[in-house]
Amino acid sequence: MAEKIMVVLGLLSLGYFAGIVAYAGWSSKFPVFWAVLGFCFLAAAWAIHRNIQFPLGIKILGFAGIGSGLALFLVVEVLIVGAMLQKPEPGLDYVVVLGAQVKGSSPSQSLLYRIQEAAEYLKENPETKAILSGGKGTGEAISEARCMRQELEKMGISRERLIEENRSTSTKENIVYSYELIQADHKKGRKKVGIITNDFHIYRGTAIAKKKMDCQIYGIPAKSNGFLQLNYMVREFFGIVKDKIRGNL
Fold first, then answer.
1. Can you give the pLDDT at residue 187?
2. Which of 62, 88, 104, 114 has the most CB atoms at less than 10 Å from its CB?
């Protein structure tokens, strides 16, 4: 029975890897994780089939490591899902729209979802300003900040409400550089700031903001691609662990 389960999990993982590549191409290296995971499941099925026995100490260490890893994974995923369920807080002083990939001079689907969420919020809250945060990466003709500004202006948002932050290349830098612009702006007192990003990314974005900004922080989740959601959720687990180790959240 265990052998069959390993085979099924292996084939599902490899199939998901192939589906991601066919659907989204090689815009990210992370989908290779699913190929590696698939081969690991198939290797486990082969070991079970051959009745390969490992020393007791290795078995104990293996099960302890796997169990601890799964427990940590589940705890982090609960935090991610909890953050995804947040509702937008009205009347914020600023929203920070975190950047994502730009294809040439056009937003990727993930970035477009963030832009659409920002436009909706800004139309409903006319006193709120937006910090558009994201630099220019490889293969991008313009910065992510400029792309967001152009799209928001097309959607009817006034240029005077849009502040570009075009230096950042990571979530931490998005937050730190955006906070510098908020501090330089004219509004006084402790600000209420919303973080706009795709739903799976809200927990990490707001957690970093709560540590790096002396502001009241709120999450504003934008939707994300349904087929890629599992890939995003697993990738985000590793992003959160990495940022926790680095002291960013």
1. 66
2. 114
Q: Which of 27, 28, 31, 29 is nearest to 16 (CA)?
A: 31
51: left (phi over 0), alpha (psi -120 to 50) or beta: left
d(CA 180, CA 169): 15
* Residues 214-231 pLDDT 10s: 999 999 999 999 999 999
Which amino acid, one-letter code, is at 193?
Answer: V
For a pLDDT cut of 70, what percent of the chain falls above it? 99
Provide the phi-psi class of 157: left if phi over 0, else alpha when psi is between -120 and 50, else beta.
Answer: beta
User: For 88-132, what is each residue's pLDDT tens digit?
Assistant: 999 999 999 999 999 999 999 999 999 999 999 999 999 999 999
Residue with tokens 């004219």: 186
**Do 53 and 39 touch, CB atoms closer than 8 A?**
no
Tens-digit pLDDT profile for residues 20-46: 999 988 878 899 999 999 999 999 999
DSSP secondary structure letter of residue 220: E
3-state secondary structure of 195: strand
How far apart are the C-alpha atoms of 155 and 122, rounded to whole Å? 10
Q: Is 97 helix (H, G, I), strand (E, B) or coil?
A: strand
Q: Which residues contact 48 (CB under 8 A, 6 or more apart)?
A: 2, 3, 6
Per the model's pLDDT, the better-predicted residue between 241 and 62 turns out to be: 241
Q: What is the pTM of this model?
A: 0.92
- The span from the first CA to the last CA of the chain, in angstroms, equals 42
Please tell me the distance from the alpha carbon of residue 218 to that of residue 96, in angstroms, as a whole number. 10
**C-alpha span between 242 and 118 (Å, rounded):** 28
